[in-house]
Design brief:
By secondary structure, the protein is mostly helical. The protein contains seven helices and no strands. The protein is elongated, with a radius of gyration of 17 Å.
Length: 180
């Protein structure tokens, strides 16, 4: 996703991103939706050059920053908790942006792009939650019976996951404004 939004690797390290186990349980959003939200958010910050707090910081923990936003989105979007998956506001959960006055048009841009991304995703797949897409929770394999675990180990579900990833990448690329 870093490459999708042309985010510099020295500031946004996504290498460990998909191995992170969310604390949200087995009814969380597809990670592609959550990752898409973070990529859209970071793209807006970068292109509008409003992320000075992180640039000025020698903290070096950009991955922790991303994981915090990502995990918070998953937790906030547990089934039944958030009415609309596009309602998440990363600006309020990003510790580096807490003291930065973010214009309404920046928040509006995120909301519009996230709404378009979520709507496209929902239209394509009919669902938004990982367990609904794959037929199981990839973080709770131990709860399934032997037959289901055997099916999971065969890896056929990865084709669904790959389709979701490909769709998400194409959709995010399509919605990244080239004129900012």
């Amino acid at each position: 996703m870093r490459d999708i939004a042309w985010l510099p690797s020295d500031r946004w390290d996504f290498d460990e991103f998909f191995s992170y186990r969310p604390k949200a349980g087995d009814q969380f959003l597809c990670k592609c939706l959550a990752t898409g939200a973070v990529a859209i958010y970071l793209d807006i910050l970068l292109k509008r050059d409003i992320d000075q707090a992180a640039v000025a910081s020698d903290n070096g923990d950009s991955i922790e920053r991303l994981l915090h936003i990502f995990d918070t989105y998953l937790i906030e979007s547990i089934k039944g908790k958030m009415e609309n998956t596009a309602d998440f506001d990363p600006f309020k959960y990003d510790e580096y942006m807490r003291d930065v006055n973010v214009d309404e048009d920046v928040q509006k841009e995120f909301k519009e792009r996230m709404t378009a991304f979520c709507a496209s995703f929902q239209k394509q797949f009919g669902v938004s939650y990982c367990v609904d897409i794959l037929g199981f929770c990839p973080f709770c394999i131990e709860i399934y019976d032997e037959k289901k675990r055997e099916w999971i180990s065969q890896g056929e579900w990865r084709q669904k996951c790959d389709k979701v990833i490909q769709f998400s990448v194409k959709t995010i690329l399509h919605h990244i404004p080239q004129d900012i």
